[in-house]
Amino acid sequence: MTVTLKSNDGKEFQLSKEACKLSKYLEAQLKDKKELVLDKVNGEALKLIVDYLNHYSKNELSKLPEKLQSDDLKSQLCTFDYKFISPPSFETIFNLINASLLFELEHLHDLACIKIASFMRDKAPDEINKEFTFEIQLTPEECKELGLEDE
Known about the structure:
- The structure is a single chain.
- The chain is mainly alpha-helical.
- The protein has a domain at 41-134: Potassium Channel Kv1.1, Chain A (2-Layer Sandwich).
- The chain is 50% helix and 9% strand.
- Helix 5 packs antiparallel against helix 6.
- The longest helix has 16 residues, at 43-58.
């Protein structure tokens, strides 16, 4: 038996009831339903979540590193996790982080956070800022207070 998940941009995905059981949120929402509209999840992130749930409904959750040994994720993650988390843009990764909280998928949340942490590892704040293009910037006073002012 399958259910239909609809993203906030109108994309639809089929998911088995068995795969839905990995998410406490989906399991609770879909008890008597065959369709669920997810207003807070876009199609790109939902497709990845469906792929993730389909994989892990048939496979045991992988063990994630507690501490990154380097920014080389290939040597620290299982093949599925590495391939799953490598191609998406940072925007998609952040969407996955938010969606994983909604779906109550701790493993996925940790995996997406590992991707961000591996990028940030050993980078200067200005390098990180350029990649993520943060809209909110610290004032010079805030930088000084945090000890981030240029010496």
